[in-house]
Amino acid sequence: MVHMAEGNFDIDMQLQPSAVDGIERFVVKKTFHGALEGTGHGEMLAVRTAVEGSAAYVLIERITGRMAGRWGSFLLRHDGLMDRQAPTQNIVVIPDSGTDGLEGLSGTMTIDAEAKHRYAFRYSCPE
Question: 3-state DSSP call for residue 52?
Answer without folding.
Answer: coil
